[in-house]
Sequence to fold (327 residues):
Amino acid sequence: MTPPPPALPELSAAEAAKLAARLGPEMFARRVAMQQMIEADPGSPAAGPVNLQRIVRRAKFFAQVLRAAGLAPWGRRNLLAIRRQENVLRLRGLPAAFHGVRLLHLSDLHVDIDPGVIPAMQRALAGWEYDAVVLTGDYRAHTRHEWATALEGCRVIAQALPPNIPAFAVLGNHDVLEMVPGLEALGWRVLLNEALPWRRGGADLWIAGVDDDHTYHTADVAYARAVVPRAACALLLSHTPATFHAAAEAGFAGVLSGHTHGGQICLPGGVALYCSDTPRWLLRGPWTYRGMSGYTSAGAGASNVAARFFCPPEVTRHTLQPGPATV
Fold:
């Protein structure tokens, strides 16, 4: 007999079972265990590099330095100056019905990091046209405790988007599984190691999404790709670009991701002081790997510290064109 999935206190047993079936039982159990460990003991050695106590101490120290140096207001102004970024995403095998289609790419919203983030996003999105929305994770600013505030912020963002267009999303390392029903109630289809066809003009573009591969290590790229017809054009949503190698091996035509914030705190010229687990060539903007196109969003918000330096926040519109991949 198959054991029941681990419990998620804020979801019903039926809701937890559905999430387990979608994510895969093994990945679901791993993620729930890690969520519970982080919530109970953020400094546990079991978390490996994900030591939240160390991260929080570092963030508080840096915030104090910014205030003492008089730089905090400048950093906040930078955070709220969200720019519109345009990109051509070339996908090999792209059906003709999708040539010129535009995707709005939102990433790392962290809507509860500062009360000015949501109005800034509303201004950035006003009047922009696109055919679908993709969201690559990190909807809340913190990684523990309540998440209802972030869901409410996402509701406001969803109201700023056109109704009745497709919206595909994945979770990030700041997000918990309990957020999925609330996000999907907004019309954002969260992909948990899953793939769905987006039909247009009698053709399909497959949109796949994997779970977080930074903190939870629950991304299963091959599992997500398995339902996609072998010859179909498929685009992967992954919170972290670190899945690029597995995506290429699985035959994806492109990858959209975030997580890095482009460095968030950079030196003049955009030289990042910290790159997390990401190679610098994947840090932000367009990239290619073995004929596969990719784009790493610098993100629209900020984490840990409500400031940016020499790394503007962005919302991105990708115009789809047939391959080969170029940068």
About this structure: The longest helix spans residues 52-69. The first strand starts at residue 83 and ends at 91. DSSP finds nine helices and 14 strands in the chain. The mean pLDDT is 90.
